């Protein structure tokens, strides 16, 4: 990838420098070889390539595909499968679900009755307090995973606590964090949520170390970058987990990684997470469901099955820009988890694309017209 | 996520096929229906133009504004009829008619110099001055035998674009 210098970077939140999108779009998009010969009326009137691209985007586009939840095909529509399915539903809702709620409640009781005393009584003994709080957080996450009958297979060496390293992973749902946290207490950087999730964030997650950001604030980026740098320098802090996609994607694709995690001057340890859809679709479509509903859906399904791979730590190669580094790590994670890469920025869910891409097309066309005008 | 192909009966599919003059196979119509339902987020059977702007690949297209003018408030039949110009089975005439409609902003069957200038402006943006655009357009018009004040009608477009190998297709993914 040699063209990361083509689009100039700017400080605006949404104007992220990125590699050449034309490299990714289907080859039909870069349709013509340069038209030759003198410019004629028919060349100006023939807008068919541009229209074809527009129609292609209407018919199918790689961005919307990333956020499509794919419901499983219904299989229960005949005379013997339907009663079986009904029986399964009754089992899940009337027996399994209450058991899970019970398990989770017990877990919370144990957690709170240990966490609160430790938090207040051991105020002076920071190291001990934090070590206990870490184990408690890992424990409550295990309870959460148990409440979905989570079957998580971890592959690769477990994360170690060393300074100057960050962990990056692909993002499908907020439960990614819980799945990873039950193995190692990570510090995490998250969007601040409202409601009960926000409450959890400000109390319990504070103890493992958390950094908040606000997507809609433009200046936020610099503040967050500074906080990230401070965190990774501290030897006592928990290893930092970052989801560079910035948004939840449906576990079939990965969107562009934001470069923030890759310009901290640390080793980056990639983590790949892949959920098995047969049991439940773990994709949290935040546009369609609140997190509470999502959790309830998980708790009334049979199981959450996933694989987690801890991959080889990567460092910035000499002569590599942070963006190229981010793309290289994205490649490693996508290959391991069997995900396809798309060239879009996840934040396009919330905003329009930068005019730069359109301007490039306009520039190409204008230059071609002017050049052909000269030919006689 | 809602609608599956079971919502479309065989009758519906055939009716839509008739409407678009068999530009799409039945499988393609089913795929396009799924796509329509995906874009129609409020499930009201009708897509407002904003929805198309939320597709980044469409929003970066220079002609998106001109197309949006044609795209407001589609139901499924109109969606198919609109896309039928991009099927490999549609005739050259149909495609040229579509291009004509993109140019003919006031839908009066005539394309003026200004209409053509508007499209050229969309295609070139800030990379050509207004003066350059007018000059280029006037020059190629004259070479083709028209003047700045002529109005082009559909038959003119057929003549100009008719004997080229016009390729205007969008592939419908069929799974």
- CATH homologous superfamily label of the largest domain in chain B: EF-hand
**Major sheet summary line of chain B:** none
Number of domains of chain B: 2
- Taking the alpha carbons of the first and last residues of chain A, their distance comes to 37 Å
- What is the name of the CATH class of the largest domain in chain B? Mainly Alpha
Q: Count of helical segments of chain A? A: 11
Largest sheet of chain A: 7 strands, mixed
Task: Give the largest interface pair and sizes.
Answer: A-B, 51 and 56 residues
What is the count of DSSP helices of chain B, taking H or I runs of 4+ residues? Answer: 10
Structural class by SSE content of chain B = mainly alpha
CATH architecture of the largest domain in chain B: Orthogonal Bundle
How many β-strand runs of chain A? 9
Overview of the molecule:
Chain B: GO terms for molecular function: calcium ion binding. Chain B: Keywords: Calcium. Chain B: This is Calcium-binding EF hand protein. The complex is a heterodimer of chains A (376) and B (175). Chain A is an alpha/beta fold and 376 residues long. Chain A has 11 helices and 9 strands. Chain A is 44% helix and 11% strand. In chain A, the strands form 2 sheets. Chain A has a 7-stranded mixed β-sheet, with helices on both faces. In chain A, strands 6-9 form a two-stranded parallel sheet. The model of chain A is unreliable at 1-20 and 25-32 (pLDDT under 50). Chain B has 175 residues and is mainly alpha-helical. Chain B has 2 domains: 13-85, EF-hand (Recoverin, domain 1), CATH 1.10.238; 92-162, Orthogonal Bundle (Recoverin, domain 1). Chain B has helices at residues 10-19, 26-39, 49-53, 56-59, 64-71, 76-83, 92-103, 113-124, 130-143, 154-162. In chain B, helix 8 packs across helix 9. Chain B is globular. Classes of the chains: A alpha/beta (376), B mainly alpha (175). At the A-B interface, helix 1, helix 2, helix 3 and helix 11 of A face helix 2, helix 4, helix 7, helix 8 and helix 9 of B.
């Amino acid at each position: 990838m040699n063209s990361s210098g083509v689009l100039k970077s700017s400080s605006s939140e949404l104007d992220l420098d990125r590699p050449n999108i034309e490299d990714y779009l289907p080859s039909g998009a870069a349709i013509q070889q340069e038209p030759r010969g003198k410019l004629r009326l028919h060349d100006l009137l023939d807008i068919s390539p541009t229209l074809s691209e527009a129609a292609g985007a209407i018919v199918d586009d790689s961005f919307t595909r990333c956020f499509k939840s794919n419901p499983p095909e219904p299989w229960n529509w005949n005379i013997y499968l339907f009663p079986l399915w009904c029986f399964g539903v009754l089992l899940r809702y009337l027996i399994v679900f209450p058991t899970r709620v019970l398990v989770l409640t017990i877990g919370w009781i144990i957690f709170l009755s240990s966490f609160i005393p430790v938090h207040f009584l051991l105020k002076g003994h920071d190291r001990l307090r934090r070590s206990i709080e870490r184990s408690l957080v890992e424990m409550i996450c295990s309870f959460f995973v148990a409440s979905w009958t989570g079957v998580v297979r971890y592959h690769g060496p477990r994360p170690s606590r060393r300074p100057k390293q960050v962990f990056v992973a692909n993002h499908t749902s907020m439960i990614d964090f819980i799945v990873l946290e039950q193995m190692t207490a990570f510090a995490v950087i998250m969007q601040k949520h409202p409601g009960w999730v926000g409450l959890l964030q400000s109390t319990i997650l504070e103890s493992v170390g958390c950094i908040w950001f606000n997507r809609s604030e433009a200046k936020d980026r610099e503040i967050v970058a500074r906080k990230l740098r401070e965190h990774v320098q501290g030897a006592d802090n928990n290893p930092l987990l970052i989801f560079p996609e910035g948004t939840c994607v449906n576990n079939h694709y990965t969107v562009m990684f934001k470069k923030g995690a890759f310009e901290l001057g640390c080793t980056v340890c990639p983590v790949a997470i892949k959920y098995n859809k047969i049991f439940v679709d773990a994709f949290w479509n935040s546009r369609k469901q609140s997190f509470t509903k999502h959790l309830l859906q998980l708790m009334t399904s049979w199981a959450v099955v996933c694989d987690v791979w801890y991959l080889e730590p990567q460092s910035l190669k000499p002569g590599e820009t942070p963006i190229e580094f981010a793309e290289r790590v994205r490649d490693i994670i996508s290959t391991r988890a069997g995900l396809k890469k798309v060239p879009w920025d996840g934040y396009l869910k919330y905003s329009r694309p930068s005019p730069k891409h359109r301007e490039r097309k306009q520039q190409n066309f204008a230059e071609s017209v002017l050049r052909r005008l000269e030919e006689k | 996520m809602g609608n599956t192909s079971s919502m479309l009966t065989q009758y519906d599919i055939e009716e839509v096929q008739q409407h678009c003059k068999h530009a799409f196979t039945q499988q393609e119509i089913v795929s396009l229906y799924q796509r329509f339902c995906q874009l129609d987020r409020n499930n009201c059977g009708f897509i407002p133009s904003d929805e198309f702007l939320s597709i980044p690949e469409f929003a970066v297209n220079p002609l998106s504004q001109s197309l949006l003018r044609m795209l407001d408030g589609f139901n499924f039949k109109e969606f198919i009829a609109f896309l039928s110009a991009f099927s490999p089975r549609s005739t050259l005439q149909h495609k040229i008619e579509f291009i004509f409609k993109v140019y003919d902003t006031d839908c009066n069957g005539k394309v003026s110099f200004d209409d053509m200038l508007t499209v050229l402006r969309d295609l070139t943006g800030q990379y050509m001055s207004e003066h350059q655009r007018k000059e280029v357009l006037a020059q190629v018009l004259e070479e083709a035998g028209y003047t700045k004040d002529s109005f082009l009608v559909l038959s003119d477009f057929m003549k100009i674009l008719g004997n080229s190998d016009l390729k205007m297709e969008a592939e419908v993914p069929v799974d």
